Amino acid sequence: MSEVSGKAWDTALFKRVMKYVGPYKLTFYLTGFLVIILAVLAPLRPYLIQQIIDVEVSEADVEGVMNLTMILIGLLIIEAIVQFYQTYLANWLGQTIIKDLRVQLYQHIISFRLKYFDKTAIGTLVTRTVSDIETIANIFSQGVLVIFGDILKLIAVIAFMFYTDWMLTLISLIPIPFLIIATMIFKKVIKKAFQEVRTQVSRLNAFVQERVTGMKIIQVFNREDVEKSRFEKMNKLHRNAHIKTVWAYSIFFPVVELLSAGSLALLVWWGTKGVISGFTTLGNLFAFILYIYMLYRPIRQLADRFNTLQLGMVSSERVFKILDTKSSIENEGDFVVEDLKGDIEFKNVSFAYVDEDYVLKDISFKVKAGETIAFVGATGSGKTSTINLLGRFYEFQKGEILIDGVSIREYELKALRSRMSVVLQDVFLFSDTIYNNITLNNPDISEEEVIKASKAVGAHEFISKLPGAYHYDVKERGGMLSVGQRQLISFIRAYVHDPSILILDEATSSIDTESEQLIQNATDILTKGRTSIVIAHRLSTIQKADKIIVLEKGKIIEEGNHQDLLEKDGHYRKLFELQFSAEEL
């Protein structure tokens, strides 16, 4: 993790953060104005108390005491009202800005190519989107304006102190240089500690998210104790990072209190002598006690404010690092078509996930509109990679892919993907209703259309028996449904979106024979009249395909229909005989 370092970089990063204030400048300036009012009002209270003691009390003017007391009470009420609005507006501003920033970040993340998620921990992205952005809010609610207000208050208090009695002021300020040194040391230590805390929080989030997602694997292989031990070590690092911040605070605050007590001791010693000798007044002594309290409290908080600001800057750097990541489609075209015929052609396509380690090598084939083409081959032969290229989820390095005679790089991406539907082997269902999982919250798809599609696919019967039917909550990842039921829902999802091109990625590889028959019927319905690409695990499901392509190590070694490939007595026939002999056993 990179850190915020260097004055110039701090300034550049700060300016970038402050750009988000733009739409809310009025609120920002109003909050700043209230901060100034508070800074000006604060030292008036000790001054009024000094006037009450030295003027009204000394002259036994009861009416004067009452009048100034009422003014003091009114001043306190005004301060309370201004403080309320200043606090409310500052926090409102912070939360509103991070709302906009969080939306921008989320929108940016969902535009990334799949390659980005292959190498980035999901827990890290969750940390950036939730807790890191929440920390940025403190820049506005507890950082910039509040620091400005504290500094202004210090200036105002010191000015009143010098105006009231310059000698008492100098005596009271003797410990201040030591406080400044202590504050600078504290600021440096706590900044480093907070950075370590953020790093450990991110690691902990990523660890927990991955283990909860993979809980079945942990329990199946009896790895609970091992993962518990790893979690304990990571959690210990997290605790230790927090303890460093506690250690810094536990030293700094007593030092501040000690120096504050030193100022009061010097003030009482010199002030008492002054009152007795007559070169100062009792009112001044009382006022200065309050001034010292007002002086040390902002100084003590300033270190905390600056580190809150720095923590927000660290978080903002992490967020901006993601926003600056270029992982979306860069050369997106602008060709938009309402419907696709479905003619597909791969011309000498080569593709590698990393550098030049090609998983597809010089692939060429054609699919006519309405045809069904199937890919078979061993794991790692390049079947899934082929379909990933068609929807531009990954970018190929060589060759050309055409749909209806137009390069896929010329299509507007959303328009291209809107005409495709993919049914994956590993079906992902959101923690939501069956209806919303099918429509993906598309308001243009009615419940009647969903029911009609479910009946066509053969899933209506089991859905209607569930509590709430189509409004049944399937829970996280569809855990309340069987594998076959989840697969049927994914078929309905593809059906209702009425694609021109349908992609089935080993949709029957993980289900039982009974469910396979239902899904095979659903496949026949879905593929009818549209271009379909099927990645087959069970060769029995692709015997009706117009063309079967056999892949091995990223190359096409055979192609033809089922009967032609059997007659060739090649690799496909061996796969077919091996699979069916195994099934008979």
What features would you describe in this structure?
By secondary structure, this protein is of the alpha/beta class. It folds into two domains: 13-323, Up-down Bundle (ABC transporter transmembrane region fold); 344-584, Rossmann fold (3-Layer(aba) Sandwich), CATH 3.40.50. Helices cover 64% and strands 10% of the residues. The protein contains 20 helices and ten strands. The strands form two sheets. Strands 6-7-8-3-9-10 form a six-stranded mixed β-sheet, sandwiched between helices. A four-stranded antiparallel β-sheet has the order 2-1-4-5, with helices on one face. β7, α18 and β8 (531-535) form a beta-alpha-beta unit. The two termini are 55 Å apart. 33% of the residues are buried.
Task: List the defining traits of the structure above.
ABC transporter transmembrane region fold, 20 helices, 2 domains, alpha/beta, 64% helix, Rossmann fold, 4-stranded antiparallel beta sheet
Task: Note the topology.
Elements: H1 7-18, H2 25-41, H3 44-57, H4 62-109, H5 114-118, H6 122-164, H7 166-172, H8 176-213, H9 215-220, H10 224-277, H11 282-323, E1 344-352, E2 358-367, E3 372-377, H12 383-390, E4 398-403, E5 406-407, H13 413-418, E6 420-423, H14 434-439, H15 447-457, H16 460-464, H17 483-496, E7 501-505, H18 513-527, E8 531-535, E9 547-552, E10 555-560, H19 562-568, H20 571-584
Parallel strand pairs: 3-8, 3-9, 6-7, 7-8
Antiparallel strand pairs: 1-2, 1-4, 4-5, 9-10
Helix pairs in contact: 2-4, 2-6, 3-4, 3-11, 4-6, 6-7, 6-8, 6-11, 8-10, 8-11, 10-11, 15-17, 17-18, 19-20
